[in-house]
Every structure is written in C-alpha cells, then in structure tokens.
Amino acid sequence: MKKRVVTLLLVAAMTGSMVVGCGSNSSSDTKSETKTESTDTKTEEKKELADDEYQYVSAEDTAKADGVHVLDVREWDNYVTGRVKNSEWCPIFPLEDDSLVDAMTDYAKENLNDGKDIYIICNSGKRGAEKATGVLRDAGIESTSIYTVEGGAKALADVSGALTTDRTEENIDWQYVSGKDAVAAVDDKDVQILDVRDDDTYKAGHLKGSFQCGLKEIESADAQTAMYKLATEKMDSSKKVYLLCYSGNKCAKTGISILKDAGFDLDNLYIIENGAKDGDVSAAFVTE
C-alpha cells in the first residue's frame, strides 16, 4: 500500500497562492509543500512525524481497507448521504465548535488508542483532516498511525462502491432479545422500545409506549436523519433499546448503526427476534 508523507512549511511572505480546504474556499496563509514519497511495508519501522507533517492514504486503498479505523469527521448531512462501510463517525465540523474537540478527544481515548491505523475522511482531505489529526495527536494517538484520506470524500465518490448508505452489513456483533422478554420489558423504565416500521403499520398495532421512526427505506438519507434526530433529541443513550422491525433483520440493523452514530453503546442495543412476526409480540400490540 502506497502512502505519502507531506511536510507543510509556513512561508512568512504573502504570495498569490491560495490553499483550498474542507468546507472553505481559501486561506490567507500561504504554504509551500515539500513532498516525500515512500512505500510502507509491514516490516518497515515508522518514523516519528513533526507537527507540520501529515501522512496520506489514497481513496482507493481506503475503500478496500481492513483492520483499520476509518474515521469520518464530516458533518452529519454530508456523512449520511454516503459513508465508507464500517466507518466511525466523529465530526470535527463546524471547525469553530470547540465542543467537538472535546468529544473527539474522549472518543479517541476510548476507541482509537489500540495501535490500529486511522484513516481520516473529511470533505476534501484538507483542513478538517488536519484539525482532526491534531486532536488525535493531543489525545495520545501515535502520529505515525494517523492518515488523511487524500482528496477526502470527494475522491471517494469517484471510486466505485466506496461510499454507501447501506448499513446492514456492518461489522457489528448484533444482539437479540426474545419476543417474550421484549413484551415483559414494556413497562420497564430502564428499557426503550424503538419501532422502526412504517407509520401505517405502526398505527395498526405496536407495543405500548414505544418510540417510532420508519426505516422501511433503509438506504434513505432522510429516513436515517429522522432516526438520528429522534435518538439525539428524545431518547436516552444511557438506557437499553429493543428495536422492533418487520422480521428482526435489516430495518433493525440499520437503526442500531444509526444509534451507534448517535452515541449509544452497542452493548445496550438489541434486535427483537423475528420482529413483529413473533407471536408474543403481535399478541401484545395496542393501537392507542
């Protein structure tokens, strides 16, 4: 796999050059780039990087990467329209929002400090990735493990199949709860039941007290966004969630993937086995 290391040297004198960044048209600082290309091998020792050095990986290699963290730092509205399979979402945009730095720092310490390489996706592979790299370094992540996806999401969009809205094939250890246990949890204040069937089906019969957000169109960015807003605005990320769909498969899996992005712990997320087809579940349906 071919990766690049780029050193950015600040130039004191102003020139007419403009540097294009993620989510920005230009920057008043002029930078000259000294590029050194190198080919990494598994046995090659990684060298420490200076603060103004960044490593790059191609969009093509990112699309087929395995055993790495693919960290998407774009805003939700960009991320939800097309993401790399199994990517992790931790936004750094808007860049002026300091609370996102704190959230990324916490996320890095809890999830990324395992020695695996990290591939950062921003809009175009510039300012967002550079800021995220700095945050990760400050959080204690080895600088030699951090790579910017060259060209960002714009480059990935040109790679066939690199970006997807399908969340059903994620590397998630799906957990299940029986219909009987789900029905028993209807009045449990520590369990939230989330029905992801369409509106009309939900109205015809559902478990009492359940939240509802239709995910029948599992690849719809609008449907996924509605689910994300419900999760962040009305649900409690500290409590267990039992997801009910038509048969306990794709809609529920999509919901779990979105809840993960919304900050819910995967250990607290369960699919109700067989969904609405389960006899105990359908017998407990109400229409109020």
UniProtKB/TrEMBL annotation:
Keyword Signal assigned: yes
Keyword list, A-Z: Signal
Cleaved signal peptide residues: 1-22
Matching Gene3D superfamilies: Rhodanese-like domain (3.40.250.10)
Pfam families the record matches: Rhodanese (PF00581)
Region (Disordered): 22-52
Rhodanese domain sequence ranges: 64-165, 187-275
Biased composition (Basic and acidic residues): 30-49
PANTHER family to which the protein is assigned, alphabetical: FAD-DEPENDENT OXIDOREDUCTASE, PYRIDINE NUCLEOTIDE-DISULPHIDE OXIDOREDUCTASE
Name of the protein described by the UniProt record: Rhodanese domain-containing protein
Lineage, highest ranks first: Bacteria, Bacillati, Bacillota, Clostridia, Lachnospirales
